[in-house]
């Protein structure tokens, strides 16, 4: 088995979510991740959530730290800074998500360490970037959802702003960082030079929101809040109730799809109705079209519509909660779940995490070892960096 990033070492000075998710993706592709944690309780994500039984190995921590190595360093101490420099000298990638300027206080900023490893790929993640008027502003996921306008895009007109129900900004920022790191590694292979990457949560979110932002930039018309109606604005791309009280999401946006839908549900008259002949006419007569669809979908349960319409090439999906979604057989077929044994967890040690979200033709992404205990690999890494026994003991004291 061979994964694309085998042999790549990453010095991971990040914590909580965006940075660790970036290095999680790199780990799934085979990179070695050395996670630098603070003394005491380490990464705050270790104790995230309300169930104290999971402290040290919280589910959110498990999600993005499997297979990494944990080293504890008090970066305020000179010997720990020397350990960090030795690690960086042996690394291909460094990633950090302190506030701008913090790594410089430790003598570990890009300008200070690039001589240790001229081909180093150095990635900094922050709320608003390493320069600009908001450089020093603190930011977390929900703050950036607010400042980018993301919270005003969901729901219907008149609804209060609402955040996305999971840390989407952290996740997409981590994915953006991983993408940038891979691009820099590819260029390094060609040109044998390092790179400094500046990833801002705000910037990554704005790029992620391209489909909402660019139409405004082009037309000057702000995006409308359309509730559960799709991006096309078509009444045939919306949510509908079915006979069993469940709901389906229909995604009919193209004319051939509408024609197929009319035939499949036995409403060929729609194809001759002057109100419904074109997408523009269906938008104009949206209420009438919705009324027709409400009647049709009230005739059968959601699961039946999902299977029947999908088989006919008509985009349709039953609305599920997360528990239902992760139980779908498709996750097994697509290798989306990875089995892990995490010793010491309450109730059960055998758990699952989510894989990278894509498949190769062979040698699939993945990880088999659990997240590390706090400082689990400190001695192993210190020895590999040629610290003496006395120095290793001193590094432990500094913790």
TrEMBL record:
<dbReference type="InterPro" id="IPR023606">
    <property type="entry name" value="CoA-Trfase_III_dom_1_sf"/>
</dbReference>
<dbReference type="InterPro" id="IPR003673">
    <property type="entry name" value="CoA-Trfase_fam_III"/>
</dbReference>
<dbReference type="GO" id="GO:0016740">
    <property type="term" value="F:transferase activity"/>
</dbReference>
<keyword id="KW-0808">Transferase</keyword>
<protein>
    <submittedName>
        <fullName>CaiB/BaiF CoA transferase family protein</fullName>
    </submittedName>
</protein>
<dbReference type="InterPro" id="IPR044855">
    <property type="entry name" value="CoA-Trfase_III_dom3_sf"/>
</dbReference>
<dbReference type="InterPro" id="IPR050483">
    <property type="entry name" value="CoA-transferase_III_domain"/>
</dbReference>
<dbReference type="Pfam" id="PF02515">
    <property type="entry name" value="CoA_transf_3"/>
</dbReference>
């Amino acid at each position: 088995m061979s994964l694309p990033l085998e042999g790549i070492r990453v010095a991971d000075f990040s914590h909580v979510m965006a940075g660790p998710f970036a290095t999680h993706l790199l780990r799934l592709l085979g990179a070695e991740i050395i996670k630098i944690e603070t003394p005491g309780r380490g990464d705050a994500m270790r104790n995230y959530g309300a169930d104290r039984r999971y402290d040290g190995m919280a589910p959110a921590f498990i999600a993005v730290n499997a297979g990494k190595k944990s080293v504890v360093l008090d970066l305020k101490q000179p010997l720990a800074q020397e350990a960090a420099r030795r690690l960086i000298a042996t690394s291909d990638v460094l990633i950090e998500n302190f506030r701008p300027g913090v790594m410089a206080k430790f003598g570990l900023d890009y300008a200070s360490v690039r001589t240790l490893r001229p081909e180093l790929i150095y990635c900094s993640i922050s709320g608003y970037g390493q320069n600009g008027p908001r450089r020093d502003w603190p930011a977390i996921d929900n703050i950036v959802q607010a400042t980018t306008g993301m919270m005003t895009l969901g729901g219907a007109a008149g609804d209060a702003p609402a955040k996305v129900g999971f840390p989407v900004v952290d996740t997409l920022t981590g994915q953006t960082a991983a993408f940038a790191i891979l691009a820099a590694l590819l260029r390094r292979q060609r040109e044998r030079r390092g790179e400094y990457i500046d990833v801002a949560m705000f910037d990554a979110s704005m790029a992620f929101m391209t489909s909402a932002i660019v139409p405004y930039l082009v037309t000057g018309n702000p995006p409308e809040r359309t509730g559960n109606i799709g991006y096309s604005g078509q009444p045939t791309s919306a949510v509908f109730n079915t006979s069993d009280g469940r709901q389906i999401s229909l995604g009919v946006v193209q004319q051939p799809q509408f024609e197929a839908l009319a035939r499949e549900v036995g409403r060929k008259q729609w194809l001759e109705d002057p109100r419904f002949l074109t997408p523009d006419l269906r938008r104009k007569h949206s209420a009438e079209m919705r009324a027709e669809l409400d009647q049709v979908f009230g005739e059968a349960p959601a699961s039946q519509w999902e299977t029947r319409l999908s088989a006919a090439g008509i985009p349709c999906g039953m609305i599920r909660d997360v528990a239902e979604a992760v139980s779908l057989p498709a996750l097994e077929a697509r290798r989306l779940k990875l089995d892990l044994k995490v010793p010491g967890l309450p109730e059960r040690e055998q758990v699952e995490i989510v894989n990278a979200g894509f498949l190769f033709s062979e040698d699939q992404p993945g990880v088999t070892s659990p997240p590390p205990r706090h400082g689990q690999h400190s001695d192993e890494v210190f020895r590999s960096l040629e610290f003496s026994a006395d120095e290793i003991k001193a590094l432990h004291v500094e913790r």
